[in-house]
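Ticket #4471: structure export looks truncated?
Reporter: QA, pipeline team
Priority: medium

Steps to reproduce: submit the single chain below to the structure queue and open the exported record.
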Amino acid sequence: MNQYDVIHLDIANFRRPGDDSMDMLRWINTEVICELQKIYPGILNGDENSIPHTLAQLNESVKASFVIVIDEWDAIFREFKDDIRAQEEYVELLRGGGGSKAHAEFFDIGL
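Actual output as written to the record:
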């Protein structure tokens, strides 16, 4: 119990009027990293710009492990059906950013 910090994201809540898909992706990144900086003061240096790399840094520094719960994970595909670039960047974000040393396991629980 209490072995992992939980990050809960409702992707649909990151959709703001007037934003395009890339704004939405930037906002997800910014909000999650800002929250992590508040929870782990003094560990993160403020230059973080990638969720996967930030999580890897926290894991390396303080052995923090995370469970990420994503509601409405497919919202970007519904909201921006024709924006293949944004969809690819979102999938890359979910995969861990390509260069991160963080280990992640994803489970589709079908909710």
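Status: closed, not a bug. The export was complete when the record was re-opened. Leaving a note from the reviewer for reference: The two ends are 23 Å apart (CA to CA).
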